[in-house]
């Protein structure tokens, strides 16, 4: 019997298997940030253990960082301490560290691919659930907890039971104005936030083949929101072109040797998945969420479902709508918006800024809306400037902030006030995710752009 | 970090019959700024437990002195969302040693076991029976027998077996952690890594 793409990558990294227990999985790349690493480093210090492969480990500051005045000392004491600890820990162990203001600094899942750290066929982990992003390159990439961060620092390995396999095939071609984000939100709305739990997902079909690498990253990023351990796509010419000549990508002979391995990374025709999901691109339109988990999403022209129509607990559904201040059966179009957030590891890449800028070009920011445009990295910020998008956005009344996770999880000052509504290109609309009492509507960059110029939930297809 | 070994636990339980309890509810992101594992229990379920002026919300279960115990019983898909181990730390630090649900998110389940919390998966019907038992008497006691992998509602003597792989079971029974196990394997790992393509 053939192997799936996931089997090929996973199996080639198994150092040993424990009988009736997990596999010892070798990790090629470990990404570290300031929030989930300090306790791991502290434990290593207590045990007198050095990081085994500092050259396979990369550290950046992103989760708990300001997005303005990054050249000034961080004011908030605990945040400043976390940043200082990461810098010290990286120095102690000889780990590359790209702190605030460094030209390679940015959100961990944006800078990995940018610098060629993310490679096809690699195993990649990080103390962050959106590590699934890197699956866009054909990597087995997944989020881990701090105990596991400690394991990887100490041994470049992790103990993991091998997940089951799921294939999600989207047939057909995407309609205009439907972006990668909409595809992912649609999948989650169909299979729920626990629909892929216990599984590693492979996305197949022309829809994904035709996406840019940025679009593929957006889809894989949201794998965790359907409960999956991770999600991946087979690498192709587009993947190889993207990674070629990046700093940490193999060069010369190493490139050719790696390519021999990468060319084997596809699912064999007779491989078997534990679950198969088939969906149709023609059914997808720009998506918005109306509730408090990413599975509570609908096409933007639809109405909020009635409690009697949803699967799962009606009580939970009603609690969710109460939190959002919405009623069942209402349309989402025309809902008033207070904030717009463009950014995050989901949609903070250059393509997302291009898409946003294309919609707002020649228009003005709505005066009623606060808009935070936060690039995923300094590299993205530089691109925004060099492509003229920066000026384009300024002309429309927007400001572009400095890179970081920002309002996606609101650990810094970028918090949506209680009761206010935000159209956000991020990944989670949980209660209080973007600030205590904040109400989040997840959407694509162009739905966010349409909201930014109208102050309401607006269909980008009908915007004049 | 080593933890207290887990054998047999008898306790009352705290019910939280809500589906999709995500890790942002268990511990909101603004409480992830610590650099040591201290005091997370104070902020467990912070925004469900306290008003914004820090006064307790009277209707939240943790603020009701009737409900106590070392077992937290949650609705389906408990622990979804972020990979933050801080969520498991908060639950442990508050005093829970076991979380029961009909379904757990993967990363939360791993994190829980790695720090000495036993996540027990029971059938949806048995979960309902547990919630009903607590509703009719908050003093209902439960027994978790890890060596025999059996969860029992003591008052009614209803029980159900639960799954756990023998490696993790052995760790929990002895208070071992994975790190010690892996550190012993470093030589094997280094040999494995010797000739990789990147």
Total E-strand runs of chain B = 8
Mean pLDDT, all residues of chain A = 97
In total, how many domains does the architecture of chain A comprise? 3
Task: Work out the strand percent of chain B.
Answer: 15-25%
Report the β-strand fraction of chain A as a percent range.
15-25%
Architecture of the largest domain in chain A, CATH level 2? 2-Layer Sandwich
The level 1 CATH classification of the largest domain in chain A is Alpha Beta
Going across the major beta sheet of chain B, what is the strand order? 1-6-7-8
- The total count of helices of chain A amounts to 16
- Order of helical and strand elements of chain B: EEHHEHEHEHEEEHHH
**Estimated structural class of chain B:** alpha/beta
Which protein chains make the most extensive interface, counting residues with beta carbons within 8 Å of the other chain's beta carbons? Answer: A-B, 80 and 58 residues
| Biggest β-sheet strands, sense, barrel of chain B | 4 strands, antiparallel
Helix content of chain A: 25-40%
**CATH level 4 superfamily of chain B:** Aconitase, domain 4
Total count of helical runs of at least 4 residues of chain B: 8
Instruction: Indicate the CATH class of chain B.
Output: Alpha Beta
The CATH topology of the largest domain in chain A corresponds to Aconitase, domain 3
Multimerization status? heterodimer
Class inferred from helices and paired strands of chain A: alpha/beta
Computed CA radius of gyration of chain A, to the nearest angstrom? 21 Å
